Amino acid sequence: CGMVAIVGRPNVGKSTLLNKLLGQKVSITSKKPQTTRHRILGIHTDEAKQIVFIDTPGLHIEEKRAINRLMNRAAASSLADVSMVIFVVDGMNWTADDEMVLQKLQYRNDDRKIVLAINKVDNIKDKEALFPYLNELGQKFDFDEILPISASKGTNVQRILDMAQTSLPEAPFYFP
Length: 176
Ligand code: GDP
Fold this sequence. Notes:
Elements: E1 3-7, H1 14-22, E2 39-45, E3 50-55, H2 66-79, E4 84-90, H3 96-105, E5 113-119, H4 131-140, E6 145-148, H5 157-167
Parallel strand pairs: 1-3, 1-4, 4-5, 5-6
Antiparallel strand pairs: 2-3
Guanosine-5'-diphosphate binds next to helix 1.
């Protein structure tokens, strides 16, 4: 179905990115719509397709306690329904926590795309210094795309939207 998950630690720029992704094309039924498995952030609609953006908060929880493992499993099953995961990190502030989530995202089915969105690149002065690092990440983890972005300036946001569109199934997804 036409669902895309936006995943990442607090403050990496997820809401900023969501607002840019939705642009003016926001159509939302209630303030905090929710299905049993997903918290819906917003819906992008054009002539052909709808993309439902969801969040998946449990992924960053350490699995030391049983309750955490449960929350984590809920997050994972929520991700089972999506056709694309946008994993957002702060290009200036990469942490071990990010890598932990990436490890979890590696257990995946093959028709789910994973895009690593390295945000806040507008803050990075020496952009070429980022290349070896991006290379290393690409070798360590299996991404469909590694995309430096600026959510606030809108850099490469259209590219994410295009990828989301092409990852959707052909038939339109009608939100009930
Ligand atoms: P969230 O907690 O992941 O939803 O993050 P927010 O969207 O609330 O953003 C956290 C902070 O990062 C805010 O102060 C944003 O203004 C800032 N921010 C988000 N995107 C960018 C970006 O592309 N560039 C810069 N320089 N700051 C950004």
